[in-house]
Structure formats: structure tokens, C-alpha cells
Prior knowledge:
This protein is 41% helix and 18% strand. It is of the alpha+beta class and 934 residues long.
Amino acid sequence: xxxxxxxxxxxxxxxxxxxxxxxxxxxxxxxxxxxxxxxxxxxxxxxxxxxxxxxxxxxxxxxxxxxxxxxxxxxxxxxxxxxxxxxxxxxxxxxxxxxxxxxxxxxxxxxxxxxxxxxxxxxxxxxxxxxxxxxxxxxxxxxxxxxxxxxxxxxxxxxxxxxxxxxxxxxxxxxxxxxxxxxxxxxxxxxxxxxxxxxxxxxxxxxxxxxxxxxxxxxxxxxxxxxxxxxxxxxxxxxxxxxxxxxxxxxxxxxxxxxxxxxxxxxxxxxxxxxxxxxxxxxxxxxxxxxxxxxxxxxxxxxxxxxxxxxxxxxxxxxxxxxxxxxxxxxxxxxxxxxxxxxxxxxxxxxxxxxxxxxxxxxxxxxxxxxxxxxxxxxxxxxxxxxxxxxxxxxxxxxxxxxxxxxxxxxxxxxxxxxxxxxxxxxxxxxxxxxxxxxxxxxxxxxxxxxxxxxxxxxxxxxxxxxxxxxxxxxxxxxxxxxxxxxxxxxxxxxxxxxxxxxxxxxxxxxxxxxxxxxxxxxxxxxxxxxxxxxxxxxxxxxxxxxxxxxxxxxxxxxxxxxxxxxxxxxxxxxxxxxxxxxxxxxxxxxxxxxxxxxxxxxxxxxxxxxxxxxxxxxxxxxxxxxxxxxxxxxxxxxxxxxxxxxxxxxxxxxxxxxxxxxxxxxxxxxxxxxxxxxxxxxxxxxxxxxxxxxxxxxxxxxxxxxxxxxxxxxxxxxxxxxxxxxxxxxxxxxxxxxxxxxxxxxxxxxxxxxxxxxxxxxxxxxxxxxxxxxxxxxxxxxxxxxxxxxxxxxxxxxxxxxxxxxxxxxxxxxxxxxxxxxxxxxxxxxxxxxxxxxxxxxxxxxxxxxxxxxxxxxxxxxxxxxxxxxxxxxxxxxxxxxxxxxxxxxxxxxxxxxxxxxxxxxxxxxxxxxxxxxxxxxxxxxxxxxxxx
Length: 934
């Protein structure tokens, strides 16, 4: 009730917003007045919204209401293939000129410039600078060409087959094999079961060119299109551009009807029990499919139903989360919701869980029992009030940040309105009315939500699991028995009392002994009486966000070789025990309606905390910091639950070819490191894990606050920061000593190394090329090394993807580190066909060699600089970027002021410096790892 009261008081501060008219159930949901929506004479729909975050940028999006569901039998995969072709040349931008031009203005291929194809739609993304009229015009030319003027020459189509087939290859594996078996049951007797967007290999290899051109002509037409423009723009000018570029196009005279495809109902309960030798986890999915088709939300009553649904899902998932947090968790995680399936117009009441492979039926029975428990007994008043407070706090936070929203969020909202007719009344209207809607909903209405969903027909159970010796496969008969629960055997849910505080011990405040300000970056540093430091920066990037981190040198490098092996995999589970005598469920209940999270960590060289909160809930975050530092629970049962959940996730990871490769590859490279303990825990490693030792070492690592610096970035208040710092951080124990990062001297294997690992039945390979070693860290070389990675990525995409059609994706990354020792790392990685692994490895190294011998091309260096300049403009106004800068400065012993010069350092880097860093570090030993099938 306290949280609800706060929300009401907040509303009163905005009388223009709070004076909403009385809602009538039959009234239409209004449309956001900040969005200009229109339809051209040819049927094309457009959305335009001015939004200045990020500044000087506009997101253009072309949405086609057509996807793989509309393919003919001989076109399977061509909706997606067409998406590829739009990047391979258009009327105004032939061949690779489109990607080349966009890279020249700072738009990265894959990261910024992208697209996707679904069953029912194909969507193209184009974010571009908006402060240059020529660039904006070029952007509209590009989306116009995508829509109507793609170059579908036989030569380019055949060249792209290899790239698309590589993307097809990426999807091969256990999940794909099992999906192919269960989708016909999940989407029984529907077109969706036969139209996966990636298509069929034999069609992708052999389709005739006319099949692709006919798909483009049939479905890329104005009355199936939407153009969305959101950003730092003039709305009227953008509307005119849409008309100039799209109004002249006509729909086909004999256009094909845009059919919708139903998912027929069925009386049976279909059970799919699929297993695979390469499957990594065991999962359950239970669907009760709706009898009817999805209906668009149009009225206030529809919106009220949606809020009821949200309340229901929130409460049920809170219960499932409590079970997952128990000492004997039935699943690693589980959730239930009512929502979409693969089909746009078919929804279902769905439960999902990742589970213990040996307890499949038990976990399924738990999911069904919790559904039935709610159906019979409903929820409690306490659960209802907590769920309402959660919804209100989220709504309040969104409202406070209504003018700080990234344009991309609004673009997605417009896209959903176009494709699904999802309502978009705007956050002001939503916030003004959500409390009225919530107050009109009673607990009985929410309890009744489930009654129409749980049924004995039109349902599907899917179980996917590893296939291995000793694991008995469950039968359909057993599954059907497990989902038949006798409601008379169930007892009502018992709602425990909510804790009154996050702290159980009195806190004796300390004091601030020194206060310093850094006017260059607007930061304040408080030195506290116990020696701890608190540095904070007040920003206006978000109204309702504060990020926090704390860091101290030390970490597990201070553990002995024996200790690290006994504690490595336990460290991640220490926080599962909770704090202040409260378990995780107690904490979750107390925090309902509050937005704050903090988690401790211990890395190789540091220990600390990471978290986030809001100005209103900042004190709770400070209390969590204090509790994790001074009063972490020791709970062996909670740790056993953590081990079980981790085992569910990791036990069969080695059956996955890519993970097996990583494990074998890095084990080989670490063979001279006595501390190497593998990437994930095995049963044998769990057996030697010492929870008590891990807990004791944690207490050692968090015994001295004087060794920590605490960072806060966001909408902080000076007075609150000082008060909370004195009370919750200055009161922490300390001994005044300072630790440093320790270099243990262990290194990856040196020399020219090549390791080939054979695993997997599919024709899939993965190549990793690495250069690494000790180096004296300099900021100048660090920038050049990063630039080298970006520039080489451009050339690798051009050569390995565009010229050789050998890969779907390829990247290079370079970095230099100062802690715990000066070092350089440079990696090249790509998946490919086994028959091409050696050839493409040679091609990648040849591209690197060109830079070593001749230096990078100036145009590629400029592409890197333009992209970095665009990213910097965006990131310099984001809290996360500033937080990363503070922690990096702490680690490197550098000034946080350097963030102000980051863009200038990138501008200053030269082709010669990039060549020199390549010559200096990448002409020495290299390590090559290749995954090959068995």
C-alpha cells in the first residue's frame, strides 16, 4: 500500500496528466498524438515521430507484411533469400555500393544495418545520421530501393546462395533436428509447420531465378508495406519524403490475396518427446491453444483484459520463481504466460521450464499442478497487492523516462501496431489511466482468468532432452498421466509474511572526511571515515535510472591453487543464500513494487558489486550493498539447490560441438596452468567443491571497505548520496589496507599452435585464429589495436562473405589490457563448412597480411572513424558508458577525464599506426583452433 500511495502522490504532481476522463469499457483506446500515422493512396502505411534520443539520428524501418508463410512449395526459403538480396545491390546502389556507402557514413553492417524474416513479415532496419540532409535523402533512397528496386540479376542471386546456405548451416544441430519433429504437432495441420523461414536446403541450392523475382513482385507492394521514421527530425519534412519516394508506386493489377493461415483446433493432446545426442539441456513446453483467433485490442475493456492477464502472469510466475529458489528446485527456471505461438493469429496458454533430465515427469507435474492450484484456489490478497505494485512501479518508471526513450523503442511499437494492430496510446495516457484500470479489477476477476484456458483438448506437450546411455526416455503414456492432476489432492498456496526490512542488524553511521569535485566531468568523490571512496556523477540521460558498481583489487588470484579449484564454481552461488537472514523469496517479496538490484561478484583480479536502481529506491540498493558486505547468509540447502539448477544447465554442455570445442581448445592452451579447471563444472568437480571454504573466502574478500571504490551514475541527489554513503558505506568494516592485482605468471601456450577438435554429426566447422602475449600497455596502441580489429572485419566481410560466399558472419577483435599484466589479444573467428575451413583460414590470414605489408586502405580507416564517432555521440549520453569509464579508469590507474578525449583519440589514429601495431604484434606466434565434424 505504501508503494501505491507514492504513485498516487506522484500523479498529483502532474495535474494535466491525472485529469483523465472517466473510462468507459466500450470506448476506443486512443492513438498516441505524438505519432503521425497516415496511409498513401496506394495503401502504404507510415508512422513518423520526433524523438531526440539519440540526438542527430533517425531510425528508418521498412516493414513488409509478408514472410515465409506466403511462399509456394518451390519457394521455401526465398522470403529470407530476398532479404539477403536487398543488401546485394539496388537500382541506385549496385553490387556492394550500398553497404560500402553506409559504412562510409558510420553505419556498421550487421550491428546497425540489419534485417530479419519471420513467418508473417520481413523487416529492414536503417539507422542513419539525421544532421545531414544528403545522408537522410540517401537513406530514403535505400529503403525505396529495398521496397521496389532490388537488383535480382542471375549472377548476384547465384553468388548469394553460398552465404544463405552458410546461414542455413549455422542453424543445424540438435535443436533443429528436434524442432523439425515437434513443430508438426505444435502447429498441427497448418502452413506454419511447413514454412520455417530458413527454408529447405535443396530449394536454396536449386531454385530458378524466376521463383525469387516472382516472390518479390507478388509481395513487395505498397499495400503490404509500412515505412516508420523515428528520430531527431522534422515530422512534416519526413512525411513529404515518404510521399516523394513511395507514392508513385502502384500495386499489381491482379494482386495475390494476402491470406492468413489458421492453426486448426484438434481434439487430441499431442505429445512430442524428442531427444538428441547433442542436446545440451532438458526442456518442457506445455501449450493449451486457444480455440479462436487472436483479436486485436481496440477498446478499454480489451485493455482491461490485458491488465488482468498481466496480473495473472505476474502472480503465477512469482510462485514458479519461489519453487525455483527452493532447496529442491523442480526446474532451473519456469514461467507461464498467455501469448503468441509461431502463428500470428494463434495464441496459447503456455508453460515452459528447463529441468533436471532425470525428473522430467515430476517437473511437468509441478507446472500442471500450479496451474490447477490457481484454478481451484486462486491467488491471495497479498499476492494481488504485490503484483499491482509491480505494475505501477514499472509504469511510473516508464512515465518518468518518457522523454528519455530511445527512438528504437518507439519504432518497435509502431511496427507492432502495423502488423498486429497492437494499441499505442502513448505513455502519458497509459500512466494516467493504469491506476483507474487497476482499481476497477478485483481479485475474483484475475482468479477467473485461467478457467477458459485449461482444457483436455487442443493441447500439446513438448519434451526435448539429451539422448545418452542410462537416461530412460519417458513415454507418451507417462506424459499423459503426468498432466492429469487430481485437484482434490492440492492444497492452497501459503503466503508467508513479508519482511519488514532488508537489514537485521543496527547500522552505526560513519562520516565524510573529504569531498572533492571534478568539474571537467561533473563527478564528486567522497572519502569516508572507514577509508572507502564513493564517486558519483549526476546525469540527466535518464530520469529514473541510477547504475552502481563497486570494485576492489584482489579476486581469486589471491587464492591458492587448491583453493581456487574448490571454490571456482561455488562463487556464483553464494548470493543464492540471501542476506540478513532473508532467503531469496523473502527478498523478492519485500522488493515487490520497488526497483533495485545489487549482486556481488568475485573475478580473477577483483571483487565487487554491480546493480541498478531508481532515485526513489536508491536507499534499498544501499541497504543491499551493506547486507551483502556484512551479513551474507550461509545456507547449505540453498547452495544445494543452486548446484542442482546449474547441473541442469551445464551437465550436458559437452555434447554440444561448439562448447566441446571451446573446452578442448582452452584446456590445451592452458595445459601449463595448474589452476585451469575447465569452463563448466562436472559432477566430479561439484563433488570436490567446498561451499564453506567459498563462503569463508567471500568474507575475506569483503572484509575491508577501505579497499573499495563505489561508483554511482545517474539521476542522483547530492544530499541523498551523502546521507546514504555515511550510513551504509562508511559503516562497513575496514582495516585501512590496499591490495593490488596479482599476476600469477601463468600464460596460454606459446608458439605457433594449431589444434583441431572433431565433434558433431553436422557438416559444421568453426575457426578461431588468435594472437596473444605480454606487452607494455599504452593507450595509443590500445586504440590502434581496436581499430585494426574493426578495419580487418570490413575486409573479411568483403572477402570471405561477399567475394568467396564462404561465411555468413566473420569478425576480428583486438584489445590491449593493463591488469593484471600488460597484454595484447587479437582474435579472428567465423563458422563455415568443413570443406572450406583451411581455405578460408588462409584467406583471413591473407587479408591480415595485406594490412601488415601495405597498411589498411584509408577509406576503411575512415569507415571505422565514422562508425566510432556515431557510437560516441550516442554513448557519451548513456549512464552505462560513463560507469564503464569509471571502473576502467580504476583498473588502469588512469584519469576518468580521458572519456572526454576518446573521440579525439579515434580521430587521431592513422593507417600507419594501425599497420605498425599489426606488424609489432601479429607477425609473431599465432594459435589456430578448428572445430571439424566427427
